[in-house]
Amino acid sequence: MKINSRTRLCILIGDPVEHSVSPEIHNSAFQALGLNYVYLAFPVKRLKEAIEGIRGLGIRGASVTIPHKESIISYLDELDELAQKIGAVNTVVNDNGKLIGYNTDGEASYLSLVKNGARLEGNKVVVLGAGGASRSITFTLAVKGKTREMVIMDVVKDKAERLGRELVEKTGAKVRSGLMENLKKELEGTKILINASPVGMSPKIKESPLPKEYLHSGLIVFDIVYNPFQTLLLKSAREKGAKTVEGIEMLVRQAGEQFRLWTNKKPPLEVMFKAGRRAVLGR
C-alpha cells in the first residue's frame, strides 16, 4: 500500500475498538482493487468532536460501533430510509461535507441468509435476542424479507415485546414476541432460526442459547456470533441435520456494503472473507 497526499481515509469510531478486525478486512479490499484508500480505527469518547473532524478533514467514510450507533444520528445531515426505521447507524458516508448515515448490518444479515439458500418469503423466522443487532436484522427482514411471521424472543420479555410492537408500527410486518419457555414449540413450525444474541461468543464457547434437542433438520440456523466461527449452536444444528450460516458472513458482508458505499465499487468479498478469518484467528 502506497500512502500519499491523495490517499482517502475511512475510519472506525467506537469505544473500545482495539478488538476490531475491520481494518484488516477493509484494507485487504482496498489493496486488492488497487484503490488509494486506507482504513484506521480510532477510540472515540467525544463523538461530536469526532464528527466535526470527519467534516473538517474530508474523511470519506466511517464505520460506527458501540456505543455510538444511536447517538451519532443527531450529528448527521441525512439518514437512509432503513437506518431511520432501525434508529441506529453503523456507516457514515461523507458526500462533500454532507454526512449521510446508513445501517449495513441488517442488509448483511439478509444477504447472509439469501446467499446461503434461505427462502424468507412466506416462511416463519424466529429471532433470539432483542438488542441492537436484533433491531438491525429484524427491521431489514420486515422491510425486505416478506416473511410470513417473525417471532422475537429474549430473556427479558419486555424488551422483546417493545421491539415487536415497534416493528409492527413502523413496517406493518407480522411480528410478535414469544416466551423463551415456548421456544421448542415455536421452532417446530419454523424454517429459519437466527441467534442475534451474544450467547456462545468467545470466551464462553461452551454456551448455547437453546438445547440441542430443540433443533431439527428442516431449519436454517444463522448465528451472528463470529468468534468462534463454529459456535456450539451451529455444531449442534449440523449434528441435527440443519443447514448453518456462520457469523463471519454477516461481519464481512456488512463491511462489503460499507466498501460499496464509500468507493462505488463492487466489494472483493472473497478477499475480505479470507482477511476476516485470518484476523479473527489472530486475535
Order of strands across the biggest sheet? Answer: 2-1-3-5-6-4
The gross shape turns out to be globular
Report the average pLDDT across residues: 96
CATH architecture grouping of the largest domain: 3-Layer(aba) Sandwich
Instruction: Give the proportion of residues in helices.
Output: 25-40%
Query: Which structural class is indicated by helix and strand composition?
Result: alpha/beta
- And the CATH topology of the largest domain? Rossmann fold
Distance separating the two termini: 23 Å
- According to CATH, what is the class of the largest domain? Alpha Beta
Computed CA radius of gyration, to the nearest angstrom: 19 Å
Query: What order do the helices and strands follow?
Result: EHEHEEHEEHEHEHEHEEHEHH
Write the CATH homologous superfamily of the largest domain.
Answer: NAD(P)-binding Rossmann-like Domain
Query: Which stretches of 5+ consecutive residues score pLDDT under 50?
Result: none
Number of helices: 10
- What's the domain count? 2
* Beta-strand percent range: 15-25%
Largest sheet: 6 strands, mixed
- Total E-strand runs: 12
